[in-house]
Design a protein that fits this description.
Largest sheet of chain A: 3 strands, antiparallel
Number of domains of chain A: 1
Strand order of the largest sheet of chain A: 1-3-2
Number of strands of chain A: 3
Oligomer: homodimer
CATH superfamily of chain A: Winged helix-like DNA-binding domain superfamily/Winged helix DNA-binding domain
Largest interface: A-B, 47 and 48 residues
Radius of gyration of chain A: 18 Å
Helix content of chain A: 55-70%
Chain lengths: ~140, ~140
Amino acid sequence: MPQQDIYSEYSFLLEKTSRRIKRYAQKQFVAFNFGVTVDQWMVMKHLYPSSQMSQSELAEITFKGTPTLTRIVDLLCAKGLAERMVDGQDRRKSQVHLTETGILKVENMQPKVSQIRKAAWNKLGEQDFEHFQYVLNTIYQNLSV
Amino acid sequence: MPQQDIYSEYSFLLEKTSRRIKRYAQKQFVAFNFGVTVDQWMVMKHLYPSSQMSQSELAEITFKGTPTLTRIVDLLCAKGLAERMVDGQDRRKSQVHLTETGILKVENMQPKVSQIRKAAWNKLGEQDFEHFQYVLNTIYQNLSV
DNA sequence: AGAATTTAATTGCTATGATAATTATTGCTA
DNA sequence: TAGCAATAATTATCATAGCAATTAAATTCT
């Protein structure tokens, strides 16, 4: 491995680990019969308990694109977990909110999801987290321009 | 933010950063007119200069699934950068190798890709990398069972 | 007010990720 | 050796990511 490729290796390890976390969580979601994907869950969590939010706002807060949000909200609505309401002030916007079923599902899932998410961080301590966050934030800012 | 959700936050930050690295690299690939995606590049790199590898081997080394490899190799073949050869010993396998064009493309891309990959890691030092790798590897192993 | 610009959401397209199912081939074993 | 299990690749399906283009509505600028 040539010296100049170490940065490719770091990027690869980062992507690999990120995918493993996602895959692990998704498998647990299936095992628990949650009936939603990890990404759908992330959107639901931000609407709990009774937030109204436009899709643009949801896209920004979940770091997804607006086309992706359209599709995720489509699926949540099809499952009866969320609903779109046309904004009174601005008819281009749809305010998304959870249905009663959606609220109950979040409440049912929340503690289990916390447990699932915790598994990745075993054997790691406060200092590890802090430094880890520092590195990730630095990378993030390095590529922000 | 409830205390138990900090692990979700860490996972989110990790995924967000991973996606930003990928997106940055892909945009640079387009800007340089490489004509291949980051994932296609990763496969090509492992075949350079004249390796023969089955798709299963490529899948494992790139941490992708075999369906994904099938499609990536399809695309590389369609672009004239790689070729499949039926394995002499085992006719289920196809040995994949770069064409002459593919070899030249890797040689052309390599130094530029190294530069692109380097950008993410600005302002970070040896110790940061080591600790970062330690954390990523720990996560990876935590979820390996 | 009317025209141009901006914004929110949607749609279309390509690529990737994950899983399940299928096909072809190989290896094992009773 | 006949049958069965394991393996390699492919195909199909669904979900997500990213980009470009479109539509509708709101805002801005003369």
